[in-house]
Amino acid sequence: MRLLIMGPPGSGKGTQATLIKQAYQIPHISTGEMFRAAIQTGSALGVEAKKYIDHGELVPDDITIEIVKNRITEKDCHHGFLLDGFPRTLPQAVFLDRLLEKCRLQLDAVLNLEMDEEALVKRILGRRVCSNCGATYHVESIPSQVAGICDVCGGKLVMRKDDTEETIRLRLRIYRENTYPLMEYYAKKDLIKTVDGSCDIQTSFQAVVQILGGINDHHKK
Length: 221
Ligand code: AP5
Hints:
The chain contains nine helices and eight strands. The protein has a five-stranded parallel sheet with strand order 2-3-1-4-8, sandwiched between helices. A three-stranded antiparallel sheet has the order 6-5-7. By secondary structure, it is of the alpha/beta class. The protein has two domains: 1-115 and 192-221, Rossmann fold (3-Layer(aba) Sandwich); 127-162, no CATH class. It binds BIS(adenosine)-5'-pentaphosphate. Residues 7, 9-15, 30-32, 35, 52-53, 56-59, 64, 85-86, 88, 92, 123-124, 127, 136-138, 141-142, 162, 171, 200-201, 204 line the site of BIS(adenosine)-5'-pentaphosphate.
């Protein structure tokens, strides 16, 4: 299966993608995660990406397209992938279409997580991530067993640098202006499958499973 997962910041893309990856054994490719990993290693890519990410702005298309092109052509993606947070602009979507066309491949679905903006701000402000392994928690809905400590590796839980209220509001505006218009692009291709991101994690995931079950059935025919 070749899938995109889209939706505004905090709608649960990373959370649902982790569950999809486990259940369907397809690589989860998150451009946000790739940039954060590069920032942590201090690579040239990381230094460049940090200039944008910390302020909630989009990393320029040429840089983003290059990392996706390199990742998506790796061997583990030959039988499918789940792209999380890409594409976010029209040039990124056009690039992806051309790459898939060249390989005679098609997307199966675009999962669109929908949620009210004010609830998103509240949700993101409660997010904590492990500074060591990157596991994600939420102070109310998914707390760690010991406050501030990762259940998986014992690392320290921190807020992401771009999770301040001011930056979240900018990220939401950028989503509305640059990324939301892609819904029309993919609706014309009849690929959009909308999922309510505001319910609990398992309820949203059950909706995803139902959608993906339909796609698998279609492949078998
Ligand atoms: P990215 O990492 O993609 O950030 P984002 O799109 O802003 O999304 P988030 O990671 O904030 O949220 P999410 O939807 O994954 O939600 P999560 O599952 O964590 O990108 C970061 C930056 O990188 C961008 O701003 C940009 O600068 C750059 N970038 C990335 N891709 C780019 C591209 N293609 N082009 C240019 N620049 C790019 O959940 C959020 C919280 O809620 C967590 O605490 C979670 O535990 C909790 N939660 C999740 N689901 C539920 C639920 N159902 N109920 C209760 N709590 C829940």
